[in-house]
Amino acid sequence: MSAQDTVTFYLHSKLRNQAEGGNHNFISRLSDVQEEAGLQVAFDGDDDLARARALVRPGRSLWLMEPPVNDCGLTFRKTYLYPFWHIEQQAARWDWPVAQEHFDPAAVPAIKAANFFRYWRERLFAEAPRHARRDGFVYVPLQGQLLRQRSFQSNSPVEMLKTVLARDPNRKVIATLHPSENYSDAEQRALEQILADNLRLTVTLNSDAQYLQNCDYVVTQNSSVGFMGYFFEKPLILFGKSDFHHIALRGQDPDAFDQVMRYQPNYAAYLYWFLQMKAINAGRPEVKQTIQTVLRGHGWPV
Fold first, then answer.
1. Percentage of the chain surpassing pLDDT 90?
2. Of the N and C termini of the chain, which has fewer Cβ atoms inside 10 Å?
3. Does domain 105-276 sit in CATH 3.40.50?
4. What are phi and psi of 157, to 5 degrees?
5. Which class for 301: exposed (0-12), middle (13-18), buried (19 or more C-beta within 10 A)?
6. Euclidean distance between CA atoms 157 and 177, whole angstroms
7. How many whole angstroms separate alpha carbon 250 and alpha carbon 238?
8. pTM value > 0.85
9. How far is CA 84 from CA 35, 60, 107, 282, 286, in A?
10. 9-28: buried (b, 16+ CB within 10 Å) or exposed (e) per residue?
11. Rounded average pLDDT over 42-62
């Protein structure tokens, strides 16, 4: 078999060991599809040296959450919760085809959506969504780089937080810091200044599911916490580009904060559409056929 017929997975060391041992469900199914089409599967790391090797290596490539080095590669990524995945040409979620599509709740089978919604919210959060309340506060899950406005954001996270406090002058605001981020002294000083100026604001490291359960609504750039809030039927305001923007309000819309407490999209239909209809469910018996269809859509010979 020629090197041109090899598909190389580029993975961090822990996942690479898991995948090579056949202990990762989605990667195993993805590998099966390649091998059943007569292709050979190989594995490499995902550091700078591996990317350099990929530039000169013949064949195709699959990257976990990283942009491919050329047109012969694709990226794959978990769609917020297992076992849902996407395989795409772009690493940025807001550039994925699903982000450009129109969501029509009338085109979603209502009974299937309701059953799907009930099953997944109980699986993820047990009884908590059934007891969701609105206790008079806004939940703001922060991400990283608090002082910088990145290309996919309408403003910086700090400015977003200030906007929430200004546009909703009565509710308490609970902002949570991302546990995987290391915040600079300048970022911490900026938060301390906002806290000093706003007694309604609390900033905490504790990202508690009770915030989703009991908040009035969620505001974030594009944190996955906002997506999870859909399972609690909590309205969402986004200040950044996202693939799950379809039923969210936009922070740059001057009416967003006026509308949010009256805004009630069809959460069940949306989650079924986004996860079951537009992603790959690796827990389904037909997953290999679905992967094959997706890869063929990207022009791969499977």
1. 95
2. N
3. yes
4. -60, -40
5. exposed
6. 11
7. 5
8. yes
9. 22, 23, 21, 6, 13
10. bbbeeebbeebbeeebebbe
11. 95
Q: pLDDT tens, 138-192? A: 999 999 999 999 999 999 999 999 999 999 999 999 999 988 889 999 999 999 9
Tokens 């200004």 sit on residue? 166
Q: What angle do CA 183, 188, 189 make, to 5 degrees?
A: 150
Contact 230, 217 (CB under 8 A): no
Q: Which of 181, 149, 180 is nearest to 162 (CA)?
A: 149
| Domain boundaries defined on the chain | 3-100+280-297, 105-276
In this prediction, residue 1 carries a pLDDT of: 56
Q: Which residues are CB-contacts of 255 (< 8 A; sequence separation ≥ 6)? A: none
In the structure encoding, which two tokens stand for residue 112, read together?
């299937």
Please report the pLDDT score of residue 207 as a whole number. Answer: 72
Please tell me the number of Cα atoms within 13 Å of 298 on its side-chain side.
23
Compute the distance between CA of residue 186 and CA of residue 188 in angstroms, rounded to an integer.
5
